[in-house]
Amino acid sequence: MKSKGSRLSTDCPVEFSKIVSGFAEEVKIRRQSSQGQYAVDSHPPKSPELKHRRQRSSSFVNGKCRNRDLTLLDNKKAQEINTNSHGQDIGIKNLPSQRELLNAKNGIDFTLMVAGQSGLGKTTFINSLFSTSLIDDDIKENKPIIRYKSIVEGDGTHLNFNVIDTPGFGNNMDNAFTWRTMVNYIDEEIRSYIFQEEQPDRTKMVDNRVHCCLYFLRPSNKGIDTLDVVTMKKLAKRVNLIPVIAKSDLLTKEELKNFKTQVREIIRVQDIPVCFFFGDEVLNATQDIFQKYPFSIIASNEYIFNEKGEKVKGRQYKWGAVDIENEKYCDFKILQKTIFDWHLIDLVESTEDYYEKCRSEMLRTRLLKARDCLTTKSVDITEEQRKFLEEEMNFDEIEENKLKNYKCYEIINKTVMDKVATEWDPEFITRQLEAKKKFNELSNREISKFRDWKKSLFMEQENFNQEIEQLNHKLENLQLECQDLEYKLLIGKSSNSHSTDSATLVNVHIKR
Ligand SMILES: Nc1nc2c(ncn2[C@@H]2O[C@H](COP(=O)(O)OP(=O)(O)OP(=O)(O)O)[C@@H](O)[C@H]2O)c(=O)[nH]1
Ligand SMILES: [Mg+2]
């Protein structure tokens, strides 16, 4: 694993991992209750190390790290931009420190999702991270997705930390589409942020975009469930996914090693991208994640005494105890540092890049929808407006239009264009597909019912026809019998009377 010192330029200036773990005493974790109020868990400072950390300045704006920006400016360049063409100071020397203050004031928004099948210790892990019951498992809300908000304060800045828990995942009888809830949630938060940015008042913007998803895998020696493979595939395209092996204390050292290799192989073969959004510029600096995953973790909310007699978070067994923060036994501490110390900024910035792509795609789609409306004439606009759009707008090079794009929004009513956002909404599409599936099932059922019905009608008709034929046959026989009888009767009569002429008799017989 890379040492922290080797990648100072992208390191998070505040060691949030120490702050979030209960052993950094300066911690203030404010949990947001369902009523929107914050409860404060505060720990008075004890360690002298905190003094040192307090002196380290911290600065972020929209997830940008001060250190990273400053390394871009060498001294000469800084001198140049501080002075005008006559070499006079133009007063922007203090810009970095002003920016630092501003950044520290804004804090940093970070959202972590924990996903994976039920009972693998997601909730326990989050509570172990914070050494406090951030997630209250006694309050059982019957929801597939629950967001917990907290503010972690320290070193003159703060972390607006959100945890997305996904309780009960994979507990249904049919789990074929259970991943949809998480995927929809992630997509929806992106859309919601785009929508917020378009509002006139952007001071109250809430950033719930998911920056990282820890996917918990069941410890086993039989590979990964199909449900996990499918879910990871879907999530990995939308969020920085980091697979972790849950409850790794249930495997022996050898089993764990083999399982890690198996997981890496499955992930490679199935083409599941880990931390998909990391761009080329941070790929080298983030190699530790790619070399280390899947992180093996043991979670616990209990405290034990280690061999040195120190009180530590750990699990007690009949045969002994495990300190979960000891890197000899699991990667809990390394994962905590990876997320909060070493790659917090990378996770936030890379998500920002993904967001930019989504935003640009969505706005582009709106303009193309406007072109469709124009060509299909499905929107009511004046001749003058149509002329403007047809002559002035270049739909092939949207960027070239600059402010004309805005005019296009104005002319083709935004609601018309927003329709496409709904139409492209994965939830809408899924529901539409479901409705279509249901409709097809229903119509297939009715069609087969109708076929059975038709078949039985045909059979009945066949039976009737046969009956009719038999009756006709009987009738014919009866008629013949009648004729014979009548004939016999006439013969008998004629032999008795001799008077009736035989011609009439024959005539009657022929008529019959
Ligand atoms: N052996 C072992 N048990 C663990 C570990 N982590 C959690 N557990 C136990 O596993 C059980 C389930 O843990 P939870 O944290 O509730 O699991 P979850 O993933 O949140 O489950 P759902 O909320 O149902 O999705 C609890 O009894 C935990 O004490 C671990 O690392 N090792
Ligand atoms: Mg849980």
Could you describe the 3D structure shown?
Residues 454-488 form a coiled coil. It is found in: Bud neck. One of its GO terms (molecular function) is GTP binding. This is K7_Spr3p. The protein is α/β, with parallel strands linked by helices and 512 residues long. The protein is built from 18 helices and 13 strands. The chain has helices at residues 16-20, 49-55, 66-72, 75-82, 95-106, 122-130, 179-197, 226-236, 253-269, 280-283, 287-292, 332-342, 344-376, 383-392, 404-411, 414-423, 426-497, 502-511; strands spanning 28-32, 38-42, 60-61, 64-65, 108-116, 146-154, 157-165, 212-217, 240-245, 295-296, 303-305, 311-317, 320-323. Helix 7 packs parallel to helix 8. The chain is flat, with a radius of gyration of 39 Å. Residues 1-13 and 21-75 have low confidence and may be disordered. Magnesium ion (MG) is lined by residues 122-123, 165, 167. Magnesium ion binds at residues 122-123, 165, 167.
